[in-house]
Amino acid sequence: MKKSLINILSLLFALVIILSTWNVIKVEAVTTTLSASSKTVTEGDTFSVSISSSISLAGWTISVSDNGGCTFQSATGGEVSGSTVYGTSVNGTKSLATYTFKAPSVDKKTTIKIQFSASEMTDNTSEVNEVDSASCTATITVNPKASSGGSNGGSSENNKPAEEEPEEKVSFSSVNETVYAT
Predict the structure, then answer these.
(1) What is the CA radius of gyration of the chain?
(2) Confidence at 25, pLDDT banded by 50, 70, 90
(3) What is the DSSP letter of 21?
(4) What residues contact 17, with CB distance under 8 A and at least 6 apart?
């Protein structure tokens, strides 16, 4: 009995020594914040939106989640398939992709949101950690084209939208405690 107790204690002691010297690799979640440039454009204009990361990345996939009514034209920053950019960088980079869109036609000043999502990202460290998926939004303000004043150089007052025309003002006066509208 005494011999088996010594064997069990020896085995437990050996396990403690092995576990204490074993290198345990800690895996930490790596995150990044993406940002997209915002613009003010005129309807029908072609404009670019740049996507960047808060940390240097070695690999990434950026996609347009919602074009907000703008027409996708092109993209750069890696291998492009449709509106998705698959990028890599040996030295790492924070500038991930640039997208080109055409602004839609609008009747009045309109704010449009273009949404981007990023996945399959890796950081630019010796461990090459996987980076959590992220997203960002570009805010695009689209102004309508300026209307011309006409071919004869006349006033452009007739071209004003209805909401900009002055309203008729009503004034009141009091005579002998009776109110009249004039």
Answers:
(1) 32
(2) low
(3) H
(4) none
Task: Render pLDDT for 52-89 as a digit per residue (tens, 0 to 9).
Answer: 999 999 999 999 999 999 999 999 999 999 999 999 99
Asked if 42 contacts 143 with a C-beta cutoff of 8 angstroms, the reply is yes
How many whole angstroms separate alpha carbon 59 and alpha carbon 122?
Answer: 5
C-alpha to C-alpha distance for 171 and 181, rounded to whole angstroms: 6
Mean pLDDT of the chain: 81
Between CA 122 and CA 128 the distance in angstroms is 6
CB 33 within 8 A of CB 57: no
Q: Which two tokens stand for residue 98?
A: 């640039």
Q: Are 48 and 102 in contact (CB under 8 A)?
A: no
pLDDT at 162 over 80: no
Residue at 152: amino acid letter: N
* Amino acid (one-letter) located at 80: V
- What's this model's pTM, rounded to 2 decimal places? 0.66
